[in-house]
Amino acid sequence: MDEFDRGEFKFMKKMNRNDPCWCGSGKKYKQCHEAMDEKIAYYARKGHIVPRRDMLKTQEEIEKIKESAKINVAVLDYVAERICAGISTEQINQWVEEKTREMGGIPAPLGFEGYPKSVCTSINDQVCHGIPSEQIILQDGDIINVDVSTIYNGYFSDSSRMFCIGSVSPEREKLVRVVKECVELGLQQVKPWGFMGDMAQAVQEHAEANGYHVVREIGGHGIGLEFHEDPWVGYIGSKGTDMLLVPGLMFTIEPMVNAGAPDIYIDDNDGWTIYTEDGSDSAQWEIQIVVTEDGYEVIAY
Ligand code: MF3
Ligand code: CO
Question: How far is CA 27 from each of CA 22, 23, 209, 292, 294, rounded to the nearest angstrom?
């Protein structure tokens, strides 16, 4: 498929209805994506933000990305079986290296924009992008996000989970649970011809109903052929707004939710770790999903 065919929707070449479809299915355009393209054009004319064609994954691409996600999920399972009080976050980094390479993958964070490790490990008031270290030892009562991303055969996957270390306070346990619920409620809003804002509102409402605040500055992203693709995905929004959801659109739902104020700052020393401004705890869960003909499919969790 040439660059012109995959370009901005509004500059799209008018396809001949009998041409092979741009998606590579081998079917004629009129029997494949024509109806969908027309529907997208209709929403665009009404003033909605619509995805560019190059944001929509083909079935072939989705299958390849799922192979990558298989590794990502296995790596998180591997960590889940082992994580406990007394280990360093560098130990988690080594487990991620070990399991990813054993399965033929490459940890996507390593060297990404200069990031020095293969996974992000963010504890308590660390919001995200915590760097594993031999000096950081997990303590009983900590909550930690382990964010794993994999490249396999050139295809990208990305998901993260929270872990409660030993016995955590009821407040921390609730934060971890509620943020997981935020992701699940957001996910339930995902369907073709819905909007990104439907998902965002569900996340934001559940977080705020529990007295928490969603981080505004950092969001999710398209993913699959690159680590971070368009669109940028926020979790503050309202129904019927933001990007139209279309089959083939693949992105992450990964809200960062603070128990206190939403404000954050970046660690000047390492240039990566993000903390809550007020020192309150923060939690994040991340899933990778694709919009399907009748709803969504979870790719990595
Ligand atoms: N895994 C993060 C995400 O969910 C990105 C981390 S970038 C890194 O998008 F360089 F810190 F790894
Ligand atoms: Co992500």
Answer: 9, 9, 48, 19, 21
User: How many Å lie between the centroid of ligand 1 and the Cα of residue 206?
Assistant: 24
Segment 76-133, tens digit of pLDDT: 999 999 999 999 999 999 999 999 999 999 999 999 999 999 999 999 999 999 999 9
pLDDT tens track for 28-65:
999 999 999 999 999 999 999 999 999 999 999 999 99
Rounded (5°) CA angle 59-62-64: 115
Q: How confident is the model at residue 24 (pLDDT cuts 50, 70, 90)?
A: confident
Indicate whether residue 61 lines ligand 1 (CB < 6 A).
no
Which pair of tokens denotes residue 141? 């009562």
Name residues whose C-beta falls within 8 Å of residue 187's C-beta, 6 or more positions apart in sequence: 199, 253, 287, 289, 296, 298
Distance CA 230, CA 220 (A): 9
Is 107 close to ligand 1, i.e. is its CB under 6 Å away? no
Mutate to test the pocket of ligand 1, among 145, 227, 270 (most ligand atoms within 8 A of CB): 227
Q: Is the dihedral of CA 31, 35, 36, 41 positive or negative?
A: positive
- In our burial notation (b when 16+ CB lie closer than 10 A, e otherwise), range 215-253 reads beebbbbbbbbebbbebebbbbbeeeebbbbbbbbbbbb
Q: Quote the tokens at residue 123.
A: 């504890």
